Amino acid sequence: MPRIFPADSVGLVTPQRMDVNEPLTLACARVLDSYTLVYETYGTLNADKSNAVLICHALSGHHHAAGYHHENDTKAGWWDNCIGPNKAIDTNQFFVVALNNLGGCHGSSGPSSLNPETGRIYGPDFPLVTVRDWVQVQARLSDYLGIDCWAAIVGGSLGGMQVLQWAVDFPARLRSAVIIASAPKLSAQNIAFNEVARQSILSDPDFHGGRYTEMDTIPKRGLILARMVGHITYLSDDAMKQKFGRDLKSGKFLYGYDVEFQVESYLRHQGEVFSQNFDANTYLLMTKALDYFDPAREFDDNLQTALARATCRFLVISFTTDWRFAPERSQEIVNALMAQGKQVAYADIDAPQGHDSFLFPIPRYVTLLKNFMNSIDGGRHAS
Amino acid sequence: MPRIFPADSVGLVTPQRMDVNEPLTLACARVLDSYTLVYETYGTLNADKSNAVLICHALSGHHHAAGYHHENDTKAGWWDNCIGPNKAIDTNQFFVVALNNLGGCHGSSGPSSLNPETGRIYGPDFPLVTVRDWVQVQARLSDYLGIDCWAAIVGGSLGGMQVLQWAVDFPARLRSAVIIASAPKLSAQNIAFNEVARQSILSDPDFHGGRYTEMDTIPKRGLILARMVGHITYLSDDAMKQKFGRDLKSGKFLYGYDVEFQVESYLRHQGEVFSQNFDANTYLLMTKALDYFDPAREFDDNLQTALARATCRFLVISFTTDWRFAPERSQEIVNALMAQGKQVAYADIDAPQGHDSFLFPIPRYVTLLKNFMNSIDGGRHAS
Q: Which of A254, B266, B353, B355 could form a disulfide bond with B324, CB atoms 3.0-4.6 angstroms apart?
């Protein structure tokens, strides 16, 4: 008997692929002659193609944002709590597209793909890509799908940066922008944490200059450390306090270097799982894309000037305990938009989960997102 | 011609050592039959031995707190800006003692010392020590120096924890306690950062289970990573912004993994220098001492009860931008002291430097410390 998925689930989904043979010139000036993008879609594109919503993923995200991949799949897509029939991003109304970005490690061309020119795995030869490059590539996917203008482009964290870049680079191709738990550029502290993560990987003897696959190994220690330090920045001090406090695994001090505190156990586990599921070269590349992101840079470091060309409506959301991209960082975006007289709504959501809040079904946040999505023209007339 | 040191410098100092042959039972239940402490003194002990001040050091500190070690020494002790003639801790008034804690790597017995029982370097066989152990050892040093009661015990960060433990364990042996940029115990987030630092070292293939010296190597990569992540937590987001912002080393993006942003260059340099000067086993041990510190633990997790026995005056100082041990953490100590009717003064100093503020000569902070020290009985009647 086939599995019955929840009524508000998009159910079984099958990843699709777009193979591009048109050369792509990247910000780093290198050219990719061909590449593949993997993506998923949920819901139905309406006749005038006005109900399409693009989901941009964050550092370790991918194209599998909602639903299940097979009958026995127990793990839904990473944003399943917001995408589905009658959910905040309602697939009864919208045709939702989620992709794995170029350079990723979940099916789109990236460091772990075969380089068609050499027949070998790219590894460190895959070019570094920027948020702007991703937006260019996403625009090609839009063309391929026949979508001239997205009803909305939505993303959290690094995903929100892609949304912001869309508004600057292709103002006529989106009607709404939803930027969640993001920032207009990284701070020195943000870059510093990324650099620790990178050095963890780069200095792992199993990294082999990025050619670890050919050496039949992975820089596991480096990936674990990178994820551990990253994970600390995703959680709030309060969330960690509530979740672990100073609880001891065995109830007493052991006076050694095995796990003593629960928080140590948690971090090691997170690192271990991540190291088995994520490509090290992609992780490096993603952190650099974050570091480079700075849409104001080409506009005399003036974010207002950069955003002057934007024409869409904006919803900006931050979370009170997010210290990776604090509410003040979202407010920089909001202030620049307001100074330019753009349509922008902003909410700072009271949530204890820190940066990770954007992935949680926090009622006020989800309701706000749902209301905003419901107000989008074209959204109510699917198919 | 001999060098003329600044008039407010303690000038040339020579480290001294105390060799103890009386067994010491540690919190971990292991016994050290003998050990050595290295310490320095500045100023003159008065006749009734009432003007002695003990300085407790932080994670990477040591006994060399003030003055110079030789005529051509360009680097003064780590707290030279606060210790010296007419300085905040005035060596015309006070006899100041600074030691390297047990387990350290600057001369006191620690993992890099010879184990007298085996004739080999202790390495990982050196027992883990706690703040309470340190205070026991410091009490032995007090006995050795003939100091029944310290005019003041002073420390920042992990040093402040030792001061707090003194007030609980030996209330009759100090008249004043100065606790700077400290906390009554680590939070889950604090422990998490320590754990990343430890895993960096422990997972470095050159760590060799702590026996790296015998293998004629050091876990350099691990030490660099540990220091990099630590350093981020010592600085404030603001301090990093002011110091580095998003400045690029070469003025443009390089699209590779060499240094691009100035903050990366700074962190790598800090890590490199540290890895050449600090012992990895000691670093591990120090982070565990931090994790274990929790004077309220034996008092039903009630800090007030723990502090009920304290009889000294307290000065507690925090810094507005310190997020490693935020002002709220100092206020936990202050609130517990006030609830017990203890004499306590508290100041939250406006300073941009984050946790590192306690090492900087910030005028309001230094003046406050000086005034407090001046008000100590016995301090004005040196020799």
A: B355
Residue of A30, A186, A191 to mutate for B, most B C-beta atoms under 10 A:
A191
Strands (E), chain A: 16-20, 24-25, 31-32, 35-42, 52-56, 83-84, 89-90, 95-99, 152-156, 176-180, 313-319, 344-349
Alpha-carbon distance values, A268 to A245, A252, B151, B196, B231 (Å):
16, 19, 45, 9, 21
Q: What is the pLDDT of residues B173-203, one digit of tens each?
A: 999 999 999 999 999 999 999 999 999 999 9
Which pTM was predicted? 0.96
Which residues 6+ apart lie within 8 Å of A335 measured at CB? none
Decide the pairing of beta strands B16-20 and B24-25. Answer: unpaired
What sign does the dihedral A216-A221-A226-A227 (CA atoms) show?
A: positive
Query: Cα(A236)–Cα(A25) distance, rounded to whole angstroms?
Result: 39
**pLDDT tens digits, one per residue of A318-366:** 999 999 999 999 999 999 999 999 999 999 999 999 999 999 999 999 9
Helices B262-277 and A188-202, packing angle to 10 deg: 50
Q: At what angle do helices A220-234 and A280-292 cross, to 10 degrees?
A: 40
Q: Span B349-378, mean pLDDT?
A: 95
Question: Locate tokens 């697939």: which residue?
Answer: A91
Q: Considering CB atoms only, which of B187, B291, B294 is closest to A241? A: B187
Virtual torsion, Cα A28, A31, A34, A39, nearest 10 deg? 20
Q: State which H helix or E strand residue A337 sits in.
A: helix A327-339
Instruction: Enumerate residues 6+ apart whose C-beta is below 8 A from A102.
Output: A32, A35, A37, A108, A109, A110, A129, A133, A134, A137
Q: How do residues A215-244 score in pLDDT, each as one tens digit?
A: 999 999 999 999 999 999 999 999 999 999
> For residue B225, which of B188, B262, B280 has the smallest C-alpha distance?
B280
Report phi then psi at A104, rounded to 5: -75, -175
At residue A165, the pLDDT reads 98
Q: Per-residue pLDDT tens for A93-147? A: 999 999 999 999 999 999 999 999 999 999 999 999 999 999 999 999 999 999 9
> Number of C-alpha atoms within 13 angstroms, CB side, residue B114?
5
What is the pLDDT, as a whole number, of residue B378? Answer: 56
Mean pLDDT over all residues of chain A? 96
The pLDDT score that the predictor gives to residue A3 is 81
Residue B228: its chain A contacts at CB < 8 A?
Answer: 192, 195-196, 199
Q: Does A28 touch chain B (CB under 8 A)?
A: yes
Amino acid identity, residue A71? E
What 8-state DSSP symbol labels residue B209? G
Sheet holding B52-56, edge to edge: B16-20, B35-42, B95-99, B52-56, B152-156, B176-180, B313-319, B344-349
Residues 6+ apart with CB under 8 A from B188: A237, A240, A241, A243, A244, A245, A246, A261, A263
Instruction: Report the distance separating Cα A322 and Cα A330, nearest Å.
Output: 11
